[in-house]
Amino acid sequence: MTEETPGVRFDIERDTRIGLPEAVFCAGKPRAALEGLFRRFADPAEKPILFTRLEESVFAALPESLRAAYDYDALSRTAWNRTCPKHPEGVVAVVSAGTADGFVTHEVARTLTYLGWTVELFEDCGVAGLWRIQKALPDINRCDVVVAVAGLDAALPTVLGGLTMKPLFAVPTSVGYGIADGGKTALRSMLASCSPGVAVFNIDNGYGAACAAARTLRAIFTR
Question: Which residues are within 8 A (CB) of 206 and not within 5 positions of it... i.e. 6 or more apart?
Fold first, then answer.
């Protein structure tokens, strides 16, 4: 079943089919279509909704009355009207190589928070200083699922893959100079990892990795 907003065929029952609600990817959408969705989901009778890749300038251009109805985070470029019901158990460790990866790291964390899961952030754990990941490792291993976010040579997921038995999802970012090639080097490095069982996502796709973590947690904790 779908319900329509002008220019948009919104999949309102996706959550009942797959356990994940539809989100709105804002980049490239006409302003009028986005504003229509913001107006629609400002209604308290509507389901929770997540907007992703929502640039600060686009959000700022909305009427103040609409902006007031949403929780917006400029770093992750996400907004929601409210979050989904909180899950009583299930924790995701979101580990980043550097603070420059924050826009993806926080997209992962905000998506999981929106979906009702608990997140623990471990930022700036790049392997250029191995003590950083070593110090965080005991707390990471107390979590149920791990998402690793890294640009440049993206060695972090390979190192983590040899240190944790938890399900591990890796997200390459577009961060880095020259040969980093907008994240393609990080993607290839992760795909070529010698650590077995590391699942790799598209460049900067924090939302996708968060949804994979949520599916895994649902499989672990829902019977």
Answer: 76, 104, 105, 106, 107, 108, 111, 149, 171
